[in-house]
Design brief:
Rossmann fold, alpha/beta, about 150 residues, 4-stranded parallel beta sheet
Length: about 150
């Protein structure tokens, strides 16, 4: 949420559309919650394939309605355009999954082509898992340590 909020300054000062790609594989929860808490304009999730033209129109409307003339969207790494494919690469892990990522850059390029507006693309990836533990993180760790018994 803090990283997305921090992108408001460059997106607004350059009057761009910010495309923020997030971890989450195939569960839209990360994109939805981050978008809600950071108060972004649009959230793209893995569960619903999206139409880039419709998205471009919505974001341009959001941009026009913003006094600073910018818009921000989140997109999950496992998202797909209508008639598109999941962007994956690398070797499969023990569960048969390849790495995901890059749909934000592809979406940004499509948006720029459709709107003529410059895009600010940011892939948060591991930054989402960084930082100081909050109260809930500490409570879970303490509870686990307290309730776990050695074999």
């Amino acid at each position: 949420m803090d990283f997305i909020t921090a992108l408001r300054t460059p997106a607004g000062s350059h009057e761009r559309i910010a495309v923020v790609e997030l971890f989450g594989r195939n569960s839209g929860e990360t994109s939805l919650i981050s978008a809600y808490l950071a108060n972004v304009d649009r959230a793209i999730i893995s569960e619903v394939h999206f139409d880039p033209e419709k998205l471009a129109n919505l974001l341009m409307e959001d941009k026009r309605n913003n006094p600073s003339n910018y818009a921000i969207m989140t997109i999950l790494e496992g998202a797909q355009m209508i008639a598109g494919k999941i962007v994956e690469y690398g070797q499969e892990d023990a569960y048969g999954h390849k790495k995901l990522g890059g749909i934000g850059a592809i979406t940004g390029e499509a948006l720029q082509k459709l709107t003529g507006t410059q895009i600010l693309y940011q892939q948060l990836a591991y930054l989402m898992r960084s930082g100081e533990p909050d109260a809930l993180d500490r409570m879970v760790a303490t509870s686990y340590a307290t309730f776990s018994t050695p074999d």
